[in-house]
């Protein structure tokens, strides 16, 4: 794996790999990095140049206090340990993308701007990230209609060459992903917990090695599950896709609700909600908040689900290209 | 720089008092090794390149030149500048104690983390936490060890000041010492940001290896290369085909050396045998190897040897690279090593600080057999790789024992295969109370081209070594040419240059004595005390004391000259073991072994394929011993030959399934006879059944022991 100097610098400054809680200087937060990145961009300095800069120069150029310069220099000295850890991950099939990489998904930069994750760890076919596709979200517990819907969407994606995006967890995620893969399609799972663990699952492993699946996470590859992480991850599912279908949601609580309301507000993409008489209360509330209706029975005889979704929604927002931050 | 007079004491001078870097470093060097010492040509240049210019450097210098000094001094300079600790990656398990003491003289605190010093880990971690560790020595395997990566590495908090790759020739497939782990090191170095200095060191890299290392570590690598000639070493080659001649030669010539020395053998069995002979002849000699499940305390032996309490170490390659005892007078090879480079490395242990030292290569008939065996068993077959992957693909994660229970290969071969698969990224490891392996999603295909390349290199190296043994010209020059020394000239000291050396013939009487020694050499069968892992889930691992065998004996090693040949002929040609074998067995049992209480009856282990071979021999043996023979053990069904069962679990299961015993058997102690002992499971199971059914002590006796040619042990 070849890592560009820019990515190397970003990893050194921002990643939590090969760190422990007891270390003196914590890696930069997203906000801290954004402000540093803006400065660098203003000064026309590539991040990679930081690798060869002295402490005095750093203070002078960036106009930062002594303490901050020390922290940055200290973080930049982590190259040895980082190289060892990245090698281990690579030998397990886990790679990294930073905002400075050409392959970093443009959809994140366009839609999330400054809050696009600085780092992504992934296993599998990275070209899938941001290909036309449909996101499926929903709670883990499904009734029959929900189950059928997850299967239907997965299968439709598989047959029409669309990527099936999901959170890669149990329930809706797994069902829709499996039926997409079973229909010889492709899928992306955006994980909130340990990528290292997920790739040991034999189904995942097989799909990854066929090139049909990419698992990706903004968190450290060995991170355990946390609610905060799951919340932060939701928007990363919506913003990779063209359309989202919410299968089942609780009301006013839970990740599905939070993610869907956030998506409705941000208007990244059209959000559909499964609509049927016995639907969970969350579904009807989301419809009231402006989500589009996804009917039950499903639009079965439409050859292309994407066209159906297109003709049953209004375009949300144009996506202007603008200079983006590494 | 100020012109300071030679020999002045700088102890009081601190850095910053006007000395430049070179002077300061020289001052440190003298603190380490003595006030009259100076840099060896090239030492300062290498130190400057890494510690001052922060470059990447490859240092190719002869054994004993002082490569360790380079990284100690560089570490000191870098630490003075505020850099993080040095990470030294070396296949050696431990730094030599004297080297650590040397480093301590300039305030370098060196630590190591390895599998045998677990009791020190907490202390090392603490030292790292408070930044009191200047140099950390690890083996390449550590770089993929979860404990090291998750607990230790973060404590360095990434600030690795210098990255040292010892024995850097291992990076290259063209090198004589193929170590898959070094591929990982290459990938790590490629990912290191600019500005982290890297030092590779080796004594044994020819042009091709240097070029390969350079292409892998990147064009920024500067090469520091010096002459490889060892000026104080007298080389000589002596061909003596039989082991008894070579043993006799040792006994006759070793007294001529006043100092200490090393005798290198190719196999563990040979080190034991040579040691036994030398002890018998009154020398203070000890065997040094990694066999015997680590029963040998290697660091204690090293220490005793360093202190000259042991005159002779009889060693396998386990006593290898980097071993630095300054006053070794001789290095004798009992058998011929596989390559010129390995030979240069090993003979290079001699005479580091002596005016005169000797490197004598004895070679014999068995050398080619053994080397060919090493080459043949160097790599697992593609089928083995595939089986392992299949097993892992069908589960989340498996331990070594769990894989062994499913794949029919030996443990050492499995370990080899796992290592290769791991370095290739096909499998990963994790830790959950025990080490577990899992299949990664990375695609994998056997790199046959690479394997063939390595094997081709080995074969051509072997050919070159054969040529060395025959060579009539200057031996040192031959070695230097093979290593692409820039200026190989005749040495004027070797036996060929001088036209004289130690005698290459031996007294007949000593040869006969050695022959007798070999014949009478008692080969012990150690009883197994545990069943193998995974044999059966409800089986307790420990074999109860009262059902274990007593210590037994084998007449010889299978395939050896001498009795070994008779055993092979009996088994595979004549279908009958000769009366001569009966006679020597009686001699061995009654005169040498003398088991007490003496067995009151004999039984044997039949095989379905040759149902009469062993019982018929046992019957004759019983008659000669004048005790009765009772064939109480039977085979229930055709079992695959034990040697096709490659690991303990499979072997033991194989035996369990196919052996049964009469209900009523004699009570007394019994001699349990088999032809060849391989895994030891057959006699273990048979002995267990005998004891369970009420026999007395069980003494296993076999005609031969299939010697495991554990070359790397
Ligand atoms: N400049 C010097 N002058 C005199 N002696 C030296 C010098 N440098 C090193 N030595 C001594 O030479 C001996 C061998 O050094 P060292 O073990 O570093 O060799 P090496 O090059 O690493 O050898 P190997 O290839 O066998 O590992 C040591 O005892 C050391 O003290
Ligand atoms: Mg050395
Ligand atoms: Zn010579």
Walk me through the structure.
The complex is a heterodimer of chains A (326) and B (713). Chain A has 326 residues and is of the alpha/beta class. Helices cover 44% and strands 13% of the residues of chain A. Chain A folds into 2 domains: 5-92, no CATH class; 122-311, Rossmann fold (3-Layer(aba) Sandwich), CATH 3.40.50. Chain A contains 14 helices and 9 strands. Chain A has a 9-stranded mixed sheet with strand order 1-2-6-5-4-3-7-8-9, sandwiched between helices. In chain A, strand 3 (133-137), helix 7 (144-160) and strand 4 (163-166) form a beta-alpha-beta unit. In chain A, helix 3 (55-62) crosses helix 4 (66-76), helix 7 runs parallel beside helix 8 and helix 11 (227-238) runs parallel beside helix 12. The radius of gyration of chain A is 21 Å and the shape is elongated. The model of chain A has no long low-confidence stretch (mean pLDDT 89). Chain B has 4 domains: 18-225, 3-Layer(aba) Sandwich (Rossmann fold); 233-372 and 456-505, P-loop containing nucleotide triphosphate hydrolases (Rossmann fold, 3-Layer(aba) Sandwich), CATH 3.40.50; 375-445, Orthogonal Bundle (Arc Repressor Mutant, subunit A), CATH 1.10.10.10; 522-710, Rossmann fold (3-Layer(aba) Sandwich), CATH 3.40.50.2020. Chain B contains 25 helices and 22 strands. In chain B, the strands form 5 sheets. Chain B has a 7-stranded parallel sheet with strand order 3-4-2-5-6-1-7, with helices on both faces. In chain B, helix 2 (43-52) runs parallel beside helix 3, helix 9 (243-253) packs across helix 20 (508-520) and helix 22 (579-593) packs across helix 23. The longest helix of chain B is centred in the middle third of the chain and has 23 residues, at 448-470. The chains are: A alpha/beta (326), B alpha/beta (713). The A-B interface holds A 1-3, 5, 8-9, 12, 18-20, 22-24, 51-52, 74, 76-88, 90-93, 123-124, 196, 199-202, 204-205, 208-209 and B 84, 87, 129, 143-144, 149, 153-160, 163, 184, 187-196, 393-397, 422-423, 425, 428, 430, 438-443. The structure holds adenosine-5'-triphosphate, magnesium ion and zinc ion (ZN). Adenosine-5'-triphosphate (ATP) binds at residues 33, 37, 39-40, 43, 61, 63-69, 203, 321-322, 324, 326, 348, 352 of chain B.
């Amino acid at each position: 794996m070849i890592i560009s100097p820019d990515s190397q610098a970003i990893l050194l400054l921002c990643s939590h790999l090969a760190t422990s809680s007891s270390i003196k200087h914590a890696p930069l937060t997203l906000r801290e990095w954004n402000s540093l990145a803006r400065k660098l961009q203003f000064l026309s300095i590539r991040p990679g140049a930081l690798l060869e800069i002295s402490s005095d120069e750093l203070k002078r150029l960036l106009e930062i206090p002594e303490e901050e310069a020390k922290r940055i220099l200290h973080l930049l000295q982590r190259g040895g340990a980082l190289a060892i850890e990245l090698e281990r991950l690579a030998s397990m099939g886990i790679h990294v993308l930073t905002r400075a990489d050409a392959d970093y998904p443009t959809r994140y930069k366009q839609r999330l701007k400054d809050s696009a994750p600085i780092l992504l760890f992934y296993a599998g076919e990275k070209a899938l990230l941001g290909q036309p596709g449909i996101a499926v979200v929903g709670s883990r517990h499904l009734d029959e209609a929900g189950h059928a819907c997850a299967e239907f969407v997965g299968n439709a994606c598989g047959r029409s060459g669309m990527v099936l995006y999901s959170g890669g967890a149990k329930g809706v995620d797994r069902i829709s992903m499996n039926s997409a893969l079973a229909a010889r399609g492709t899928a992306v799972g955006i994980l909130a917990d340990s990528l290292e663990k997920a790739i040991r699952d034999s189904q995942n492993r097989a799909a990854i090695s066929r090139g049909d699946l990419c698992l990706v996470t903004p968190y450290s590859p060995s991170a355990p599950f946390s609610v905060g992480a799951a919340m932060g991850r939701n928007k990363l599912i919506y913003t990779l896709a063209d359309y989202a279908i919410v299968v089942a949601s609780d009301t006013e609580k839970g990740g599905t609700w939070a993610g869907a309301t956030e998506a409705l507000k941000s208007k990244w993409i059209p959000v559909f909600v499964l609509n049927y008489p016995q639907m969970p209360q969350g579904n009807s509330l989301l419809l009231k908040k402006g989500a589009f209706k996804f009917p039950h029975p499903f639009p079965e005889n439409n050859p292309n689900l994407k066209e159906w979704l297109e003709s049953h929604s209004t375009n949300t927002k144009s996506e202007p290209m603008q200079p983006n931050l590494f | 720089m100020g012109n300071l007079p030679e020999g002045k004491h700088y102890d009081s001078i601190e850095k910053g008092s006007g000395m430049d870097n070179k002077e300061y470093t020289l001052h440190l060097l003298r603190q380490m090794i003595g006030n009259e010492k100076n840099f060896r040509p090239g030492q300062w240049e290498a130190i400057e390149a890494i510690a001052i210019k922060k470059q990447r450097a490859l240092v190719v210098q002869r054994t004993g030149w002082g490569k360790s000094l380079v990284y100690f001094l560089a570490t000191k300079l870098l630490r003075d500048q505020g850099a993080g600790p040095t990470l030294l990656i070396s296949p050696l398990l431990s730094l030599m104690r004297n080297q650590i003491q040397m480093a301590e003289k300039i305030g370098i605190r060196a630590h190591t983390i390895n599998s045998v010093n677990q009791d020190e880990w907490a202390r090392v971690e603490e030292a790292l936490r408070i930044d009191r560790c200047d140099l950390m020595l690890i083996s390449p395997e550590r770089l993929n060890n979860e404990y090291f990566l998750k607990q230790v590495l973060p404590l360095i908090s990434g600030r690795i000041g210098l990255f040292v790759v010892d024995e850097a020739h291992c990076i290259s497939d063209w090198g004589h010492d193929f170590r898959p782990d070094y591929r990982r090191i290459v990938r790590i170095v490629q990912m290191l940001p600019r500005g982290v200095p890297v030092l590779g060191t080796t004594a044994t890299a020819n042009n091709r290896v240097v070029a390969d290392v350079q292409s892998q570590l990147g064009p920024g690598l500067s090469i520091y290369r010096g002459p490889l000639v060892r000026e104080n070493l007298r080389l000589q080659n002596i061909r003596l085909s039989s082991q008894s001649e070579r043993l006799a030669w040792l006994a006759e010539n070793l007294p001529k050396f006043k100092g200490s020395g090393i005798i290198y053998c190719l196999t563990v069995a040979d080190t034991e045998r040579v040691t036994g002979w030398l002890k018998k002849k009154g020398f203070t000699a000890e065997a040094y190897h990694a066999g015997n499940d680590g029963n040998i305390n290697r660091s204690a032996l090293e220490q005793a040897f360093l202190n000259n309490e042991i005159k002779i170490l009889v060693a396998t390659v386990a006593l290898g690279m980097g071993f630095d005892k300054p006053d070794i007078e001789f290095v004798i090879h009992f058998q011929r090593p596989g390559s010129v480079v390995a030979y240069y490395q090993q003979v290079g242990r001699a005479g580091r600080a002596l005016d005169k030292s000797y490197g004598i290569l004895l070679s014999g008939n068995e050398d080619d057999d053994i080397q060919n065996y090493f080459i043949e068993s160097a790599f697992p077959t593609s089928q083995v790789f595939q089986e392992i992957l299949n097993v892992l693909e069908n589960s989340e994660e498996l331990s070594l024992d769990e894989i062994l229970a499913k794949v029919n290969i030996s443990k050492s071969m499995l370990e080899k295969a796992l290592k290769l698969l791991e370095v290739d990224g096909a499998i990963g490891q994790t830790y959950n109370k025990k080490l577990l392996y899992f299949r990664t999603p990375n695609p994998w295909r056997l790199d046959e081209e690479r394997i063939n390349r390595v094997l081709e290199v080995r074969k051509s190296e072997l050919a070159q070594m054969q040529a060395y043994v025959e060579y009539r010209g200057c031996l040192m020059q031959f070695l230097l040419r093979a290593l692409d020394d820039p200026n190989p000239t005749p040495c004027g000291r070797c036996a060929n240059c001088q036209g004289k050396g130690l005698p290459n013939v031996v007294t007949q009487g000593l040869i006969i004595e050695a022959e007798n020694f070999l014949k009478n050499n008692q080969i012990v069968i150690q009883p197994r005390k545990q069943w193998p892992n995974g044999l059966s889930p409800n089986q307790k691992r420990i074999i109860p004391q009262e059902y274990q065998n007593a210590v037994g004996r084998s007449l010889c090693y299978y395939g050896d000259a001498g009795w070994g040949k008779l055993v092979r002929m009996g088994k595979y040609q004549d279908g009958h073991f000769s009366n001569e074998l009966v006679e020597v067995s009686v001699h061995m049992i009654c005169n040498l072994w003398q088991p007490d209480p003496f067995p009151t009856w004999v039984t044997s282990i039949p095989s379905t394929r040759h149902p009469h071979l062993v019982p018929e021999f046992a019957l004759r043996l019983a008659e000669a011993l004048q005790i009765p023979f009772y064939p109480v053990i039977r085979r229930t069904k055709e079992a695959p030959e034990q040697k096709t069962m490659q690991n303990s679990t499979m072997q033991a299961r194989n035996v369990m399934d196919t052996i049964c015993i009469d209900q009523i058997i004699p009570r007394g102690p019994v001699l349990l006879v088999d032809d060849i002992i391989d895994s030891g499971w057959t006699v273990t199971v048979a002995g267990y059944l005998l004891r369970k059914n009420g026999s007395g002590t069980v003494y296993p006796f076999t005609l031969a022991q299939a010697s495991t040619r554990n070359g790397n042990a």
